[in-house]
Specification:
Elements: H1 16-21, H2 42-82, E1 86-94, H3 99-114, E2 118-127, E3 129-130, H4 132-146, E4 151-160, H5 162-167, E5 172-175, E6 181-183, E7 187-190, H6 211-233, H7 241-245, E8 249-250, H8 252-258, E9 263-264, H9 267-278, E10 283-288, E11 300-302, E12 308-310, E13 317-318, E14 323-326, H10 331-334, E15 341-344, H11 353-361, H12 374-383
Parallel strand pairs: 1-2, 1-10, 2-4, 4-5, 4-6, 5-9
Antiparallel strand pairs: 3-14, 6-8, 7-14, 7-15, 11-12, 12-13
Helix pairs in contact: 3-4, 11-12
Length: about 400
């Protein structure tokens, strides 16, 4: 072999090409000879393995802690995102029922029917009644709402006359055991007064109809009142039509016993039961109070000609006198003691009672106490100063 020939290689010795392409080896470095410091020692290798083990352990612990924290936080985050299942609206009916009260109840019941988040309504009632037409407006609104969602009513002290008419369509009526007046299904108003000729009117009845016509109209209102109550609660009330038409106002304990109310309870209990009826376990309560204080009574002015007007600035005149659906217990605070009250029940007056009724307007106390006619009741009420129905 000549000196120019390449040295021979053993079969196991890799070639330069193998060294450059082998995946298990690093590419050749510079010509600097490798020293012992360049090679990993056994202790370095062991340290690297320990570092990797400790790192993996720390990552595992962190993952476990993160999962645990997620389990604790997730319900709160989920609840914050989803919120309660629904809302129970509590709508107040407080004080004398007038146009403002009716508008408040109508607006809030309409909102409850159109608001997808509201699942039930509770009427918080403390009212002895008020104007008949406004009471009927609330009655219609409650009836319409009860057809689409649970509507409960809770009576605190007073839930009588026009207020009772308003809540009659409710699915359930709760009363406090000590409630003072519940029911009083009838109409009360000022005594009908005769109207003479008036040159300033365009017709004989423009100033006001005669007393007989006034009584007939009020009797019609009373009949409508009692028919609505029987339609809504006839299956619950354990009294016949004549007893209901007597227009008595019952204590809370009596109202539950005779069916004018369903059970004893207060607003909180009514809210919980209404929510249960609606099928919601987690709910919020949205209380709708009247925006301005409801007046304690309807101020009246009686003119020299005998007409009665509401002293609210509008000077709107009622030709037949002001007709109120109000419980006798609330008459003083609603109207006052300056106006004589006559009451009307669901019983039509018998023939020949007109003359007796005429005596009522003049304060005649000669009506027979045993007479069961509406005119006799009017006479008794007028004689007692409007203190009894």
């Amino acid at each position: 072999m000549s000196s120019g020939d390449s040295p021979s290689r053993t079969p196991n010795e890799p070639t330069d090409d193998a060294e450059s392409t082998s995946p298990d080896r690093s590419p050749p470095t510079t010509d600097r000879p490798r020293t012992t410091a360049d090679r990993p020692t056994t202790n370095d290798a062991s340290g690297s393995r320990l570092d990797r083990i400790e790192t993996r352990h720390a990552v595992g612990v962190a993952a476990i802690l993160a999962v645990a924290a997620g389990l604790l936080v997730a319900p709160g985050v989920y609840g914050a995102v989803t919120g309660p299942d629904g809302t129970v609206a509590v709508i107040e009916i407080d004080g004398t029922i007038d146009s403002g009260t009716a508008q408040h109840v109508e607006d809030n019941l309409r909102d409850a029917r159109t608001n997808d988040s509201i699942e039930a309504v509770v009427l918080e009632v403390d009212s002895g009644g008020g104007l008949p037409a406004q009471s009927e407006r609330m009655y219609a609104a409650v009836d319409r709402t009860a057809s689409v969602m649970p509507v409960y009513a809770a009576v605190d002290t007073l839930g009588a006359s026009g207020a009772y008419l308003a809540i009659a369509p409710a699915d359930r009526i709760y009363v406090a055991p000590s409630a003072q007046a519940v029911g009083s299904v009838g109409v009360a108003g000022t005594a009908p007064a005769p109207s003479g000729p008036n040159a300033g009117t365009t017709g004989p009845d423009k100033r006001g109809s005669d007393p007989d016509t006034q009584r007939e109209r009020r009797q019609t209102l009373a009949n409508l009142f009692i028919e609505n109550v029987i339609e809504q609660r006839g299956d619950e009330i354990e009294l016949d039509r004549e007893a209901i038409a007597h227009a008595d106002a019952y204590l809370g304990t009596e109202a539950v016993e005779n069916g004018f109310a369903d059970r004893f309870g207060f607003v909180d209990g009514a809210v919980a039961d209404a929510a249960s009826e609606a099928g919601i376990d987690d709910y919020t309560v949205d209380t709708r109070r009247t925006e301005s204080p409801v007046p304690g009574g309807i101020p009246l002015l009686e003119r020299d000609d005998g007409t009665v007007v509401v002293a609210d600035g509008s000077q709107a005149e009622f030709g037949d006198g002001l007709i109120l659906a109000v419980a006798p217990q609330a008459w003083d605070e609603t109207v006052g003691d300056d106006v004589v009250m006559t009451s009307y029940t669901g019983r039509l007056p018998a023939d020949g009672d007109a003359a007796s009724a005429e005596d009522t307007t003049s304060g005649d106390e000669s009506a027979a106490p045993g007479d069961d006619s509406a005119a006799a009741i009017d006479a008794a009420v007028a004689a007692n100063g409007g203190e009894a129905a």
